[in-house]
Each structure stands twice: as C-alpha cells, then as structure tokens.
Amino acid sequence: MSIKLGDIAPNFQADSSLGNLDFYEYLGNSWGILFSHPADFTPVCTTELGFTSKLQSDFEKKNTKVIALSVDGVEDHKKWIEDINETQNTEVKFPIIADKDRKVSELYDFIHPNASLTATVRSLLIIDPEKKVRLIITYPASTGRNFNEINRVLDSLQLVDSHKIATPVNWNDGDDVIIPPAITTEDAKNIFPKGVTEIKPYLRYTPQPNK
Fold first, then answer.
1. What is the pLDDT averaged over residues 180-201?
2. What is the pLDDT of residue 117?
3. 2: left (phi over 0), alpha (psi -120 to 50) or beta
4. Which of 25, 65, 198, 211 has its CA 20 to 30 A from that of 132?
C-alpha cells in the first residue's frame, strides 16, 4: 500500500512500549506524528528519539501526539528506552510500536526493498485531527531527521488550516506569510487587517495572523 498526501491514515492495533493501543483512539482529536526507525539500539535512532522526547511538551501545546515504530519487540523497546533516557538526558514518555510481524510497516509502506528487505526506512507522517495525511518525509537509514523542520511544518500546517494563507520559503513561526493568488488584493485588505505588501499581483505578504 502506498500512502499519499491527502489520504486517510489507516487505523491499526498494535502492542507498544506503553501496552496495546488502537492508533485512532491514541490520537483522539489530536494531530499525530508517526515515525519509523530501522531498529532498536542503533545510534542515529537513539538521538532521534531523545530529541523527540525533549520536544514532546512543545508538541502537546500544539495538540499533537507522537508515536514511534520499530520492527523490534516490546522488551527490546523498554530496554532501549532506558539507554535513550540515559544517553540523551531525557525521559521518553510516548509509545514505541512493536512491529515484529511488520504489519504496520507494510500498511504504511515503511519498508523499501531496495534499501532493506527487513528494516524500515526513516519515514515520518504528520496526520491531522481528521486522520488525513498532511506530510510525508522519508530519509535513508544513515541520515537522522531534522525535527526542527518537522516542528516548523507542523506550525505551518496548523496556521494554514486556521487562516487563508500560505507560508514562504524558510518560513518560521512569527514571519510574514503569503496571501494565496485566489484572494484579490482588495479582498485581502479586508481579510488581513495587519496590512498587505504587494511585490507582484501574485506575490503578496502580510504579517502572520494571530493563532
């Protein structure tokens, strides 16, 4: 199965480091970040999970839950979490799915045969409260993800959903945003009271709206 942007993320039930869970029930009405790891007790994954743990309170403020996945078992996950907490100076509180039979990995197309027949690649999905897939990023196993970028995209997606805007290149929370071409400049002046800066008729900026 190949999942694309705009698809509904499929539900699943699986064992995890925090017990058996139903993915939809776990997410509830929150946004979700689901990300896969090639294996437990690997150095790059250890740094990723440690950094994600440090971001968890920030994600919670954004109504977002994180959940990791590895093809190893629950007992390995629990032992690995001890290592992560020790080496990354954190406390992992989010679940890590135990996917020994690779059912979830195959459901979400996390195994790429040309990269590995048995291990998952570093795939990450952002899923909105309607369970729609809004972001898909896949890295090779050797390259750690940039969670500052993932956090940035989450900010953009949530802002775009609440306002009629788009975000430009290298945008960060608080920067000016772009007015979509579908909105006329005249209408934009009424919609965006902070002002409209027109560079070209199709390229117009406005200060970021209040969240």
1. 94
2. 46
3. beta
4. 211
Distances (CA, A) of 129 to 32, 73, 161: 8, 28, 11
Known catalytic residues? 45
Q: Determine the distance from the C-alpha atom of residue 32 to the mean position of all C-alpha atoms in its chain, rounded to a whole number.
A: 7
The structure's pTM equals 0.91
Output the six-digit token pair for 124. 């990450």
Q: Which two tokens stand for residue 82?
A: 């001890």
User: Radius of gyration of the chain from Cα atoms?
Assistant: 19
Task: Tell the burial category of 82 from Cβ atoms under 10 Å away from its Cβ (0-12, 13-18, 19+).
Answer: exposed
Residue of 145, 180, 157 lying closest to 37 (CA atoms)? 145
Q: 118-121: which pairs have CB atoms within 8 A and are 24 or more residues apart?
A: 118/71, 119/38, 119/39, 119/71, 120/36, 120/37, 120/38, 120/69, 120/70, 120/71, 121/36, 121/38
pLDDT surpasses 50 at 113: yes
Six token digits for residue 33:
């970040």
Q: What is the mean pLDDT of residues 66-71?
A: 94
If you average pLDDT over residues 25-46, what whole number do you get? 93
